[in-house]
Design goal:
single chain, alpha+beta, about 35% helix
């Protein structure tokens, strides 16, 4: 059985925490800041933990060795 390869794009976007949760950047901060409220911009700083259902798929299909 061949080894499973890690998805190259996912390596750059996601990180697995020590407890096994998937860490990701906040969505919606690439462009168009002028139309967002200051509160939205503040709350989208840094990283966040992915929801469990989505995180299970990421770990299964994209980061099998993570």
């Amino acid at each position: 059985m061949p080894k499973l390869k890690t998805h190259s794009g996912s390596k750059k976007r996601f990180k697995i925490s020590g407890s096994g949760k998937v860490i990701m950047a906040q969505a919606g901060k690439r462009h168009g800041m002028i139309k967002r409220t200051n509160k939205q911009i503040r709350n989208q700083r840094g990283t966040t933990v992915m929801f469990k259902g989505d995180a299970d798929n990421v770990k299964k299909f994209f980061l099998p060795n993570g």
